[in-house]
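Support request from a user on the community tier.

User writes: "When I paste my structure tokens into the form, the page sometimes reloads and wipes my input. The last time it worked, I copied everything first. Here is what I submitted, just in case something in the input itself triggers the reload:"
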């Protein structure tokens, strides 16, 4: 069994697609993938959360004949196909893949990247093949492309490495926090597609290039400014930067009435800053409560959204779970 964490983007979503820096943190909510050999010539994939179960002949998957699979599991079938194509078929029998997730789907918390990363790691183990972290990254990224079109790679970088990262397409740098930051995640309950939101920004940028490029650049500046605030543990400054970032995301057209409602509730309840996280259009927000306002912020967001929870930052990335705890 392997697992990988989800993430929140603290600063820089959308701008990161255009080469600007973004800051993201892995959170202590994971996807667990268990794989075992079964005495058939098939691969079975079951997602407990999505309540989907599919099965395919090994040979068919090896050849990449993936027509007929569900849109939800397609990235995983593709990943299995890639592994079989790259490494041959090292097993005598078929495989059963079982998925259990603590991360809500389509909410901007990186569940698809965590799933792809955990599956790649679990298959590497059961195939007993040599794969570097970079190989795992690449194969998870291929799977992310099926979900999101042209992702920046930030999600699978966080799932693989954990911690807090300054990410720019093609490079990453770890950030050491001056103090823990109490992040509250609020879920609007509205699902959305990252691909569609990214396309919306692209269209706006084509229509008004001068203005939108300035907004994108300003978001990149916020990411860079936040690095020192994170290192210093300057919560007030982080809150200010989050609020400015939310304003710029609104200018890009990726906020929504539900997001605004949760952001306002959080600020009223004592958050120093609040913004959407991920692609927007629905999904989740993050809020940075003042130390004495954590419960108040969580409860206030819950009253207007689907859920809210205090998200601890996860410093460990993808890992093999010892003992095969099939929970
Ligand atoms: O909502 P999520 O977790 O898929 O995050 C999307 C982040 C974007 O910057 C909007 C897209 C990307 O590929 O980085």
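"...and here is what came back when it finally went through:"
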């Amino acid at each position: 069994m392997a697992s990988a964490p989800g993430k929140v983007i603290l600063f820089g979503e959308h701008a990161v697609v255009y080469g600007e820096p973004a800051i993201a943190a892995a959170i202590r909510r994971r996807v667990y993938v268990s794989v075992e050999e079964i005495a058939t010539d098939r691969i079975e994939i079951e997602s407990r959360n999505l309540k989907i179960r599919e099965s395919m002949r090994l040979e068919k998957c090896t050849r990449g004949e993936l027509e007929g699979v569900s849109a939800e599991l397609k990235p995983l079938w593709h990943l299995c196909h890639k592994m079989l194509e790259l490494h041959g078929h090292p097993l005598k029998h078929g495989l059963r893949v079982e998925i259990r997730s603590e991360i809500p789907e389509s909410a901007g918390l990186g569940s698809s990247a965590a799933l792809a990363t955990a599956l790649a790691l679990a298959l590497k183990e059961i195939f007993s093949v040599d794969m570097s972290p970079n190989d795992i990254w690449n194969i998870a990224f291929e799977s992310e492309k099926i979900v999101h079109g042209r992702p920046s790679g930030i999600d699978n970088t966080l799932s693989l490495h954990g911690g807090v990262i300054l990410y720019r397409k093609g490079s990453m740098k770890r950030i050491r926090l001056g103090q823990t930051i109490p992040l509250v995640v609020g879920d609007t309950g509205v699902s959305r597609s990252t691909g569609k939101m990214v396309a919306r920004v692209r269209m706006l940028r084509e229509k008004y290039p001068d203005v939108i490029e300035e907004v994108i650049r300003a978001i990149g500046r916020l990411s860079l400014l936040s690095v020192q605030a994170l290192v210093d543990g300057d919560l007030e400054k982080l809150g200010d930067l989050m609020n400015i970032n939310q304003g710029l995301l609104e200018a890009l057209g990726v906020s929504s009435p539900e997001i605004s409602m949760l952001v306002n509730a959080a600020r009223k309840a004592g958050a120093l800053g609040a913004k959407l996280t991920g692609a927007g259009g629905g999904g989740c927000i993050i809020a940075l409560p003042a130390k004495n306002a954590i419960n108040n912020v969580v409860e206030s967001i819950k009253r207007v959204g689907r859920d809210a929870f205090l998200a601890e930052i996860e410093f460990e990335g993808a890992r093999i779970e010892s003992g095969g705890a099939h929970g």
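Agent notes: The reload is a front-end session timeout and is unrelated to the input. The mean pLDDT is 94. Residues 177 and 231 are 5 Å apart (CA to CA). Escalated to web team.
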